[in-house]
Amino acid sequence: MAHRNFRKEDFFKDEGSDLYQVEFRKGDVGEGADLVVERQKEDGEYETLQAQMKRHNDRIFICWSEPFYGRVIFDE
Length: 76
What we know:
This is Glutathione synthase. The chain is mainly beta. The chain has one domain. It contains one helix and eight strands. The protein has one helix spanning 26-29, and strands spanning 2-6, 12-13, 20-25, 36-40, 46-49, 52-56, 59-64, 70-74. The strands form two sheets. Strands 1-8-4-5 form a four-stranded antiparallel beta sheet, with no helix packed on it. Strand 4 (36-40) and strand 5 (46-49) form a beta hairpin.
């Protein structure tokens, strides 16, 4: 399985809600059906999240209550 890392700084505030979003192109992470979002903990280990995901055109947005360091895992 492949993955794409993201940083806290990659998130931006969604204007229509209190959530923060990080954006990926659909071509970079697939269609979204097999996406797994993981947050990096302070000890460097990862925990799986049930994050809200939105799609718009060829983009996928991962939404959470605050920015975090993490990764998206997907099938290539």
